[in-house]
Amino acid sequence: MALIVQKYGGTSVGNPERIKNVARRVAAAQAAGDQIVVVVSAMSGETNRLIALAKEVQANPDPRELDVIVSTGEQVTIGLLCMALLEMGVKARSYTGGQVRILTDNSFTKARILKIDEDRMRRDLESGHVVVVAGFQGVDDAGNITTLGRGGSDTTGVALAAALRADECQIYTDVDGVYTTDPRIVPEARKLDRITFEEMLEMASLGSKVLQIRSVEFAGKYKVRLRVLSSFQEGGEGTLITFEDDIKMEQPIISGIAFNRDEAKLTVLGVPDRPGIAYQILGPVAEANIDVDMIIQNVSHDGTTDFSFTVNRNEFDRATKILEDVKAHVGAREIRGDRSMAKVSVVGVGMRSHVGIASKMFRTLAEEGINIQMISTSEIKISVAIDEKYLELAVRVLHKAFELDQVGA
Ligand code: ASP
Ligand code: MG
């Protein structure tokens, strides 16, 4: 007998019919002999509705009270799902985060899980119940309701799986797995059967919004076997997110092409080239809590150099303002900005043991006349910043060049 945690997202429980459909899946899994813990999100659109409602009363909602409000979305779905299961003759019990006792810190709206009391869930499972838990929420040690940040039900699912040492955590969503790239851009994109945690983190942070990033980190840390599947499809295997050692034999060199549209570039021209200059430029940017991604400092000539970096596009104006101050301070010549940048990355653990991936990437882009403005690399990823208008073309040609459209590539 296996212990499985199944997490269903907002679209999967978006209306009563869909909730009954989830109940049928849960019942079938239990009938197949497994113990099942279910985590659910709020019905689709509900969390947004509750946030908007709060803002009608208080433009800048008090975080503690906001958590009291938004946590109700999930409380409705756990009750409805249990009713659907009871109607089918399946023993089921629902619990809010606080009832389980998912203990978190007290940072309202973005709390972190500290400890999970699993006794109650275990007792219910032993007596043949399906346990249904509200995602996205917990309670701090003073008894206040907390929430885990948008998309946080994924993290609840993984955390429960870790606490219960479950055999697998299955994340049911409206796509049938993780793809080699976005199928809306490349129709030939393929579903991956397996991907490593590290690759998934690179793919997720670059815009493949299948899973909350924190849940993937959590699963990697606590060695939870994680699988992404569709709740609208029968019998698919989805994508298993796993450890490198498990898939070495069949590991492709490149697993996917990730991208991010919303980048902007800032350049400080004619900065005096002396120790501490990078800190003088980026220190104030970091203090303003702006994430810097790629960074380039050019070779200096005549004692001055140019310094460029990228930020998320919606931080562009703030970053520009900060640089204007920095310019006067360090005696730079000029600030230039470009707010229509995009980042494209090839991702794969296989590149650790292969040479020539970067040159293949650069040649492919060159053949299309796409100018690379910045480059950054990690052990399992090569990223380039390009003009946003070439993004889709770049993704398409790279997907083809690395033969990601071919099975077993
Ligand atoms: N309902 C929450 C949200 O919309 C949590 C989740 O669905 O994972 O962000
Ligand atoms: Mg989600």
Characteristics of this structure?
14 helices, 18 strands, single chain, binds aspartic acid, Aspartate_kinase_CS, alpha/beta, 8-stranded mixed β-sheet, 6-stranded antiparallel β-sheet, amino-acid biosynthesis, binds magnesium ion, 409 residues
Summary, kept brief:
Helices cover 35% and strands 27% of the residues. It has helices at 16-31, 46-57, 63-70, 72-87, 97-100, 119-126, 153-163, 197-205, 213-221, 244-247, 277-287, 316-330, 357-367, 391-401, and strands at 3-8, 35-40, 92-95, 102-104, 113-116, 130-134, 137-139, 145-147, 168-173, 194-196, 226-230, 239-242, 256-272, 292-297, 304-312, 334-347, 374-378, 381-387. The chain has an eight-stranded mixed β-sheet, sandwiched between helices.
